[in-house]
Amino acid sequence: MKNSVKQFSSMLFIALLSGIFSVFIYQKLVNPSTITVVENKTPTNQGVLTNLNIKDGSLTNFEYAAEVSTNAVVHIKTESVYQQQVDPLFEFFYGRSFKQNPQVVQGAGSGVILSEDGYIVTNNHVIDRTSTINVTLNNKKTYQAELIGTDPSTDLALLKINANGLPSVSFGNSNELNVGQWVLAVGNPFNLTSTVTAGIISAKARNINILSGNNSNGLPPIESFIQTDAAVNPGNSGGALVNANGELIGINTAIQSNTGSYTGYSFAIPSNIVQKVVNDLKEFGTVQRAFIGVSIQNIDENVAKELNLKDLTGVYVNSVTKNGSAAKSGIKSGDIIKKVGNKKVTDVPELQEQISQFRPGDKVNITIYRDEKEMEIPVTLKNLNGEEDLISYEENKIHRLLGARLGDLDSKEKKELNIENGIKVEEVFAGKLRSVGIREGFIITKINQTPVKNVKDFTNTISSLKGGVLIEGFYENGKREFYGFGV
Fold first, then answer.
1. 415 backbone dihedrals φ, ψ, rounded to 5°
2. Is the model's pLDDT at 47 over the cut of 70?
3. How far apart are CA 214 and CA 203, in angstroms?
4. Is 160 helix (H, G, I), strand (E, B) or coil?
5. Residue 59 in contact with residue 75, Cβ under 8 Å?
6. Is residue 385 part of a domain?
7. Is the Cβ–Cβ distance between 224 and 235 less than 8 Å?
8. Are 347 and 315 in contact (CB under 8 A)?
9. Can you give the CATH number for the domain in which 363 is found?
10. How far apart, in whole angstroms, are the C-alpha atoms of residue 215 and residue 124?
11. What is the count of structural domains for the chain?
12. Does one domain contain both 159 and 262?
């Protein structure tokens, strides 16, 4: 009997213990109330964003961002008229001239409305060498666009349509983007209007060597693309890359593909570059590019080993330009640029991106690494001609016409050359000077027999002339030359 009671008690204890353990397991591992679902509604001045957060991850509702951006992204259709060339031998053998019908080439892309009064940004390659630019809004209304200005060095162009009260997007800060952040790409791929795709930022400050710069003024290209895995195809060029708040953070520009269609990665111009270029084109009709005045390179393991560096971040200064901003401020060959303002730079594209957001004459603090310590140096940036002034629209027209970078001579150089006045042709691009045979190093002393004091004096004189121009000067070997051309 005692054994039966003891056996029953043991079984009862085990049953109770099992029940308690089962309840514990259910509460800790099975009970769905331990999975936190939070609906976070954040009011803004434009709408409501809803995020569904599940433990450590998050699913973002892009409906608001898609609605804002699709209404502000336009479909661009272009026409280019080319006169077909006829082989002169063909005309010779047949004894008469043949007039071919002009060939009309059509193109398409996207653009983004930046203001309610009709300013639109797109890629330069979308509208390059076109005769007609038509813009269709999301409401299907079509306008003919005026080309305000272009910047081949960033592959951007600014258009204007005659309309008011248009939907537009606001700029986001591309300096604050993070890898892994969700984004939307909006455009018109394959003429499929108002297409939205989603992805994440895969990388920043990518240089993919697709831009050739501006061959009329020698401005080097700026490539510091945002890389995403949002699907982008032909026709998306010039469209919007937006964040979850519907803010413009980039202009979709290129894809990496062996087939011509999307295969995984797309690239966008950062919005901070876009905003600066657009403002310049609106105000001056040309881009006010600023330069530090340095020759630079990325830091690899060989450079780091040679300089006994602990890390590979920053940009190595190979040399500084004579009379440039860097030389004037005290930056030297061998320095390592670490920051522009408060923004860290790890490589050349990042440095170019940050400097491209400034204008000539702007003052910026550059942090460099020298002699095993960092120091902050204030720098006043200069333009391509080595001046701190902004270039006017008229001056820019003259620079494009001439196709050259000109430089003033200092007193020491004038003394060595035994002249009292003159300027130097430092680089020659596509333009009038190259066409008549002027080479780099030519010293211009007179224009139409009038002495040339400095670059500004020269460009002002050119802009006031109509008809023939006679340039007089010599090369550093002493050979005197005369060159003439029409304006």
1. -65, -40
2. no
3. 26
4. strand
5. no
6. no
7. no
8. yes
9. 2.30.42.10
10. 14
11. 4
12. yes
Query: Is 100 among the domain residues?
Result: yes
Examine the residue annotation and report whether 155 is marked as an active-site residue of this protein. Answer: yes
The amino acid sitting at 268 is A
Does 388 fall in a domain? no
Q: Which amino acid is at 79?
A: E
Half-sphere exposure of 166 (CA within 13 A, CB side): 32
Of the residues 232, 265, 286, which one is the last residue of a structural domain? 286
392 is catalytic: no
User: Which pLDDT score, from 0 to 100, does residue 369 have?
Assistant: 94
Question: Which residue blocks in 330-372 are alpha helix, DSSP H?
Answer: 348-355
pTM of the full predicted structure?
Answer: 0.75
User: Which residue out of 75, 125, 224, 347 is catalytically annotated?
Assistant: 125
Alpha helices per DSSP H over 258-318? 271-284, 301-307
In this structure, of 118-122, 216-220, 309-313, the range with the lowest mean pLDDT score is 216-220
What is the DSSP pairing of strand 336-340 with strand 315-320? antiparallel
* CA distance to 105, 172, 319, 328, per residue, from 340 (Å): 44, 20, 18, 17
pLDDT tens-digit map of 328-385: 999 999 999 999 999 999 999 999 999 999 999 999 999 999 988 999 999 999 987 7
- Report whether 173 contacts 272 (CB < 8 A): yes
Residue 345: Cβ within 10 Å count: 23
Given 155, 280, 335, 408, the catalytic residue: 155
Confidence band, pLDDT 50/70/90 cuts, at residue 159:
very high
* Amino acid present at 26: Y
Could you say which of 237, 266, 271, 356 is catalytic? 237
- What type of residue is 72? A
Count, residues in the chain? 487
